[in-house]
Amino acid sequence: MYQRQLRARIERALLDRPAVFVAGPRQAGKSTLVRLIRDDGYVTLDRATTRAGAAADPDGFVAGLPMAAALDEVQRVPDLLLAVKAAIDERREAGRFLLTGSANVLMLPTIADALPGRMEIVELWPLSQSEIDDQPGDFIDALFGSEALTPPGTRSSRGEILDRVLRGGFPEVVQRPSDRRGDWFESYLTAVVEREVRDLSPVGHVAELVAMIRLIAARSGSSFNLADVARGARLSHSTARRYLGLLRAVFLAVEIPAWTTSLTTRIVRSPKMFLSDSGLTAHLLGIDRERLTTEPHLVGPLLEGFVAMELRKQIGWSRVRPSLAHFRTRRGEEVDLVLEARDGTVVGVEVKAAATVRSGDFTGLRALEAVAGDRFRRGVVLHTGDEHVAFGPTLAAVPVESLWR
Question: Is 38 within 8 Å of 20 (Cβ atoms)?
């Protein structure tokens, strides 16, 4: 069984918060983790009878729970969160409720209003590579630290790195041979569309929704234009916008906003959009090792999405807890990913599919440093080679496996 880095954060939160909500995509490992923390008092709303009883009388259902309860898949009966709010207001004690859900409750307006001050929300994504390898996963904290980055202790071949990208992080997929992953991904996509999305809102065009998911996968790493995606999926702009909101709410689509500063208007403000797992992205696009060999241009966008999600996962347990964005100027200078700490300190991360790095690969990072000024801590180019080389006092080429080694 994999040790989840967020377990310690959840257990600490239960010591001083009335409720902790563990949110994340379907099959990311939420139920397994919650049962490790609190097996007594565990109730799952996946069971039809339990769900029906909770929906019929949310307040009575919550009143009948033990003082230290764990409610799994609570988004299946949204009114339960309002009942949890009422129970907390009546008797506010730390650790009363440990909740999970496959929907982002902050994107559900009637429920989000109930949360401030009562509930800590923790996002649990599929396994990070550091969790798979039982490593600390402290790359983000090292980026913001004052010490020079150290090379990873062991090195992986480019092929091994690409295998990780194609596999992704869903626990069941990690344990399957590569020829058995496709069936799992197909079943997963069906379950998300037919159950998770429809639990939130009616979907009248399932085929078009699936087409939209594939288009998001195909545009990984590019500036996201909803109008283009709507046309490609044969959806109206308003329907595409609603569907995108649903895909984000069930953690299937992840938006990376543009990094901006009030000091300049020369920054492009369009977001990027990724699917939340590189293995699922590769499956939807029909990408395997053979295609990555014969069509090397496919590696870059897939690797960028992989790195983006590895950073998103590590943010959850890092000491710094930075925001994640991207940077692009109107002149075309860009940095794939930008991390900004709460004190304004900035780190840039550029992702290169190549095994060698040249000075020109730092053009975007130098532009980011010029805009950020004294706030710029460092910039790194992550690559698939094995060399760790400084390109100046604040810039370095770093093997991508430094993310997890």
Answer: no
Pick from 124, 130, 104: nearest CA to 28: 124
Q: Which of 336, 320, 324 is nearest to 368 (CA)?
A: 336
Domain 7-123: CATH architecture, name and number where available: 3-Layer(aba) Sandwich (3.40)
Q: In the predicted model, is pLDDT for residue 263 greater than 60? A: no
Report whether pLDDT(199) > 70: yes
Q: Give the C-alpha distances (Å, rounded to integers) separating 344 from 206, 348, 372, 380.
A: 42, 13, 9, 18
> Which residues have a Cβ under 8 Å from the Cβ of 94 and sit 6 or more positions away?
14, 15, 16, 17, 18
Q: Give yes or no for a contact between 351 and 310, defined as CB atoms under 8 angstroms apart.
A: no
What digits encode the pLDDT tens for the residues 132-171? Answer: 999 999 999 999 999 989 887 778 899 999 999 999 999 9
> Within a 13 Å sphere around the CA of 68, how many CA atoms are in the beta-carbon half?
11
User: Per this entry, what is the length of the chain?
Assistant: 405
pLDDT value, residue 163 = 97
Closest CA to 287 of 164, 166, 160: 166
b/e sequence 185-203, b meaning 16+ C-beta within 10 Å: beebbeebbeebbebbeeb
310 contacts 161 by C-beta, under 8 angstroms: no
User: Mind listing the pLDDT tens digit for each residue in 117-131?
Assistant: 789 999 999 999 999
- β partners of residue 111: none
Residue type, 36: L
Q: What are phi and psi of 318, to 5 degrees?
A: -70, 155
**What is the tens place of the pLDDT at every residue in 377-404?**
999 999 999 999 999 999 999 999 999 9
Amino acid at 244: L
- Phi-psi group of 317: left, alpha or beta (phi > 0 → left; psi -120 to 50 → alpha; rest → beta): alpha
For residue 210, give both structure tokens: 């699936």
Domain boundaries, the chain: 7-123, 129-403
CA-to-CA distance for 241 and 253, rounded, in angstroms? 12
Pick from 324, 315, 386: nearest CA to 349:
324
